[in-house]
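Hi R.,

Here's the chain you asked about this morning:
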Amino acid sequence: MDRIENALVACEKVINGIEDETISTSSALLQCSKIARLTNDEEAIIWFQYEYGGYPRTNDGHIKKNAWEMAYQNGRGYIEDGKPYIFTELASELEEKIRAQQDAINNYTTQGTSVGGEYAYVAMNKLTNSVENSTNYLIRSITNNQKRLALLKSKYYEYAIKKQIELSFGNVAEDVFRKYRKKVDNAFSSLSKETLLKLQAIEGKLDTNNPESYSQAITTCRRLFESTANELFEKYYPNYTMKTYKTKSSKEIDISGDHFKNRLSAVIEILEDKSMKRTLVGSNIIYLLDWIDKVNELQCKGVHDNITRNDAERCIIQTYICLGDVLNMQVED
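And the predicted structure, written out as C-alpha cells:
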C-alpha cells in the first residue's frame, strides 16, 4: 500500500474504533499522528506530538505561547471566572485517572464495618459521611475527566473524518483527471506540430524561482489558445473570408487580425450545435483569457514580481482543461 492508502486505513481505525467504542482515546491519538505523518500535515504532526508527549513549557513552568494557543484551539480550552484556561492532562493520563478513580469508588464502603461502645452511632455516622463525601468527590472528578477525555476524543475523530474525506476526494479527483487526461492527450494529438510545440515550450518554465519565467509560461498559454483558435477556425470555416462573424444571438463579432478569442467563440458555437449540448466551455475560456490579458498588461508594464508560481501553475492547468474541453467536443460530434 502507498502512503495515501495507509493513511485511509488509519482513518478507518480511528473512525470505526471511536464509533464502536473499540479503541481507546490514546490509541486513536497514535493513529491520528500516523495519518498526519503519512499526509505530511506538518501542523497536525506538531499538535499530536504535544498531545502524546505533553505541551512544552518555558523555564518558569508556563506552557509556551504557540503551544498554549494550539491546545486551546484543539479542544483543551475552557473559560473560568471570565478567563481562558487549558487543561494539560494527556489522553493516557486521563484514561488512567478514570480507571484508578473508578476502582477507588468500589473501595469506599461501610459494608462489613462495625463499631461498638458508647459513641458507636456517632462514629458510624461520621464514617458514613466520610465515605459519601469521598465518593461524591470521586464521581465529580471522574465526570470532569471523562468530559475532558471526550473533548479530546471528538477532536481526534473530527481530524480522522476530515482527512478521510480529503484523501478520498483526492483519490476520486486523481482517477477522474487521469481518465480525462487520456482523452485530452488523444485530442491534442490532432493538432498541428506547430501548435504542439507551444505546449512543449511551457515545460521547464516553472522549474525556476524567476517571476519572469512564470510570465513567459502564461504568455505561452495565450499563444497556445491563439494557435488552436486559428487552426480550428480554418478547419470548420475553411472558405470563410469575412472579417466579422454573426453569432446565434445575431451579434456581429470581429474575427480578423488578433481577435482570436472571437474566432474561438465561433468554433465553440459550431461545436455546440454539432454536439447538441449546452456547455460552459466558452464562458470558462473567455474568463481565463481575460485573466491572461491582465497578466500580459502587467508584463508589458514590466511588473513581474506580482506574478507567482501559483499563478503560472493555475494558468497551465486551466489552459489544459479548457482546450481539452474544446478538443473533446469534436469527439462528441
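The beta strands are 77-80, 83-86, 244-246, 252-254.

Let me know if you need anything else.
M.
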